[in-house]
Amino acid sequence: MILSGGAGTRLWPLSREAAPKPFMPLPDGETLLGKTASRALALAGTDTLVTVTNRDYYFHTKDTYAGVAGSAFVYLLEPFGRNTAPAVALGALCAKARGMGERVLLVMPADHLIRDQDAFADAVARATELAQTGALVTFGIAPTHPETGFGYIECGPMIEPAEGRRPAAFRVRRFIEKPALATAREYLTAGHYVWNSGMFAFTADAIVDAFARHAPGVLAAVRPVAQALRDLSTSSMLEIDAALFAAVPDISIDYAIMERAAEAGEVAVVRGTFDWSDVGSWQAVAALCAPDDDGNGGQGERVAIATRGTYVHAADRVVATVGVENLVIVDTADAVLVAHRDHLQRVKDVVGELKARGHEAYRLHRTVSRPWGTYTVLEEAPGFKIKRIEVRPGAALSLQLHHRRSEHWVVVHGVARVTNGEREFDVLPNESTFIPLDTRHRLENRGAEPLVIIEVQCGDYLGEDDIVRFDDRYGRTPA
User: Fold this and answer.
1) Cα distance between residue 454 and residue 433, in whole Å
2) In terms of Cα–Cα distance, which of 404, 400, 402 is closest to 444?
3) 296 and 215 co-located in one domain
4) pLDDT, greater one: 433 or 464
5) pTM of the full predicted structure?
6) Domain range for 326
7) Residue 169 belongs to a domain with what CATH number?
8) pLDDT digits (tens, 9 = 90+) for 355-385
9) What is the dihedral of CA 172, 198, 191, 158, to 10 degrees?
10) Which of these, 259, 235, 233, lies nearest to 85 by C-alpha position?
């Protein structure tokens, strides 16, 4: 089960609310979500991948998985976040409804990076053996430095020694919040503390029983949500009822279950030997690139003169640095971040400030993904907005109207099937059509090539929420 949520605010401007950290391209061009799915499906015995994510990320997630070889994909779609405990409980109830209560459920966040697949598989094999005995198992990472940004686990008595490639397992004595630096140094020296990776393994039956013992209120609130899911035992796309989900407590699996179960001696930790990163900041992203002799690294076209220890992400243009040290510079189409390496944890404050100002840059990129394709805002000013719209072959926008804007469509590439009021007709390249206010309209690509149009919007309000949908093949029309 992949838990795919979180805004990744410390990775702005590449991570945005509408396209958060799991979808952010890494230096190798892949995404964390894609890597996590591939890692899960490469494990022996994996036949079902359950992804818990927000409803708005469903199509983006499916697109990511399109290049991943796998068997059964199941999507649990949340209307809003309720933390990890309800997500895990729902996933376990889903597994039980499918007759998999005795199967081991491996829970993985979507935004972690692990490159040593063999060592990871060995740790999972060890965890699976323990989970099959009814234990609740978590994965710990041997700390390499005193880290104040991670939670820790104190290892108790050894349960299983290291055997061949399989790592050792211990009883969990306690879970510890993110420590102060001096305490983190003590943990590193002591040797029996590990970083809490946020990954778990248990049977669906065992975790549901643990909820009944340690968090009965969470389980009682989640059961009606699961019961309301249509075709829970067979459907691959399960939309969670918002009213029922609002009554579910917002609590993490660590607080709800693992800390209490550890006190009862029910939790084991596998001390993983694989590499692990939560890619939680630009410092972590920079560490993925091999630096040059001056400690500089990055992506895209860069020029570094008298520059040291600086990471540059250049998207669409050359970024030159002269006489600077220890900076992180992230250049995107509509926003630029310049930060000192010692203050990267405060990038999230930028997002908070943009949100307070009502600026869309905290939420959207200039190019925005939609189920039918993408749109890119080319220019915007009071009274008008110009977009480049690309529609995939066989895709269509919803049948909709706008109360406060008109639209002009000019076809650049492909053939547009247009619904404009009562008329339906084709628009060829270098042809156009005009959509007046309060007129039902739809854009569709029935061809085999991408359809590209330029849209000019005119009106006193040009927000994306000025849309009344009447029909939509992607489930965005209210019942």
Assistant:
1) 11
2) 400
3) no
4) 433
5) 0.86
6) 282-347
7) 3.90.550.10
8) 999 998 998 888 988 999 999 999 999 999 9
9) 30
10) 259
